[in-house]
Amino acid sequence: MSDATQTGRSLPDRLTTRAQRIFRSWEALLIVVAIAIFIANAIASPYFLNAWNLSDATFNFTEKAMIAFAMALLIIAGEIDLSVAAIIALASTAMGYAAQFGVDTPGLVLIGLGTGVLCGAFNGALVTKLALPSIVVTIGTMSLFRGISFIVLGDGAYRGYPESFAWFGQGYIWWVFTVEMLIFALLAVVFGVLLHRTNFGRAVYAIGNNPTAALFSGIRVPRVKFILFVLTGLMSGLAAVCLTSRLGSTRPSIGVGLELEVVTMVVLGGINILGGSGTIPGVVIAAFVMGLVTFGLGLLNVPGIVMSIFIGALLIGVIALPRLFVMVRGR
Amino acid sequence: MGVFTKLIGGAAMAAAMIASPAMAQDNVRIALVVKALGIGFFEAAAKGAEEAAAELGNVEIIYTGPTDTTAEGQIEVINSLIAQQVDAIAISSNDTDALVPALKKAMDRGITVISWDSGVAPEGRQLHLNPSSNPLIGNMIVKLAADHLPDGGDVAVLSATTTSTNQNIWIEEMTKVLPDYPGINVVGTVYGDDLADKSYREATGLMQTYPDLKAIIAPTSVGIVAAAQAVVDAGKVGQVNVTGLGLPSEMAGAIESGASQSFAIWNPIDLGYSATMLAYELSQNGAVAEPGAQIPMGRMGTLTLDDTNAGAMADPFVYDASNIEEFKSIF
Predict the structure, then answer these.
(1) A323 touches chain B (CB under 8 A)
(2) Which one of 3.90.1150.10, 3.40.50.2300, 3.40.50.720, 2.40.50.100 gives the CATH number of domain B13-131+268-314?
(3) Which residues of A fall within a CB distance of 8 Å from B11?
(4) pLDDT tens, B220-244?
(5) Handedness of CA B202, B205, B209, B214 (dihedral sign)
(6) Interface with A, mutate which of B6, B17, B37, B69 (most A CBs under 10 A)
(7) Where would a tag sit more exposed on chain B, N or C end, judged by fewer CB atoms within 10 A?
(8) What are the tens digits of pLDDT across the range B41-51?
């Protein structure tokens, strides 16, 4: 696995200038794609360039992006969490259960975030203490967490959230700017700083590139991984708060299939699925790209399956392009 | 610059995929939103909607829905329909409650919202169109048996579970109208638990217990198929008529073998047709959805609304040898 990661990256070419590097970077290319899609949408639909419509469209990606930030760190460190959507279901169920007993909004948010943290810690403990592969662990907990939710709710639903709880998923900060957008923007900054400006962030890269070397250089690998799982759980809990607030109700099927969209967003953002490289700005742009594509195609009433095909093609293109680039250059 | 040009090429492709001729703006645009695309039942409903549109003349049908049967997917679809400022949304919902905030927003922006088939909570729609009603179903299942028993005779009921709410209500409604069918003698009710093998054994048991049995009424799509098979295996085709509620695709064999003369279920074409007519009446002709209101729906007559602004379209549609070929490929 580590061999494969080595081929994707070469030592920085000292003959290129900083400007050239930025120009050739993945983020720059994604921005070009995002702008192209934006322009294409604006031309294709008369309804696209409308502040309120664009505001509505952000809901297509804000919740997923919250999880994608934490997932990006986890994948860079060489792990993955496929149970995030199931954590949403369990956290939402816990909040719904508490709401029946009259727990108010701050309490509900704490319960949602707390459930997320517990689920993340459970995943993290299984992966780090028992040294199990995270993909296996989280496929298991994916069924476990959602299963609990199904046992509690069956075919029923929780309603009756307090009025003030709707603020997270339906509220506006100012004009067309939603609460979820604000959370998204804040998290983008927090995770960007965490990954790119702290020792912890360097440790995450080091682990993803070579866990053994990271261990011998004094990084507490299991602890960092555990923290990343907890962080992913916390973000899933936060997404559960926003999604539940937006839907105003909880069913055990809440957020089904969302984990794959989150992973898609992360990979589209240029995070190496094998670990070791990628940036938060890339994930931010990928979130916009996915949001713009689904909204743009939605405005033209393109069937959902065509959207999936389009996103899939985009994803394969993104993964294949760097490889092709390297192969062509190698000749 | 290889990557760069390739990506620009990709973006151009994206633009080409997105660009399509602008739609005519003078038409009344009614969106038929279904649980998920690619389901025969809903494709048939869309056919009915197109039929209504052709009859009305100036209506454009937007047939749309998510790829999976999720509430989140439908909300994305609803948001894009709001953005397009469609005139009406007629939706078969994936979640009674979770769609309410999104549909409320649609109504706030002047869009007519009705639900059909699978309903939305009253605050999220103007009216709900049920395919039929419990009294109509209860009457239909005994009528189906009586139609083929001019001299009367013994009939038995094969239900789902003892706690199945729908089946219990229908049997109760059937019992109420029994005096209208003199000569029909209901000898007993058995429960197949909606399991094929148990339903089969119960049906076989019925024929052994009541040698003069003339008909088995199974108001469940699992039970009716199993009972028909039991009649074939017992060599009683022509003596015992199996009827009730079933799906044309599953019952085609039973109709062919003669084990079932006829059975009933909703007609999706009529449903799509009626939903479109109702949406048009509300958005264009000033019909008001309020308890007691009577709203015309073209060839299907009028819809009378109850206290929750819900109404029943018609008797369940009868399927027999004359039309099974047409419908068995639909659902």
Answers:
(1) no
(2) 3.40.50.2300
(3) 32-33, 36-37, 40
(4) 888 999 999 999 999 999 899 999 9
(5) positive
(6) B17
(7) N
(8) 888 899 999 99
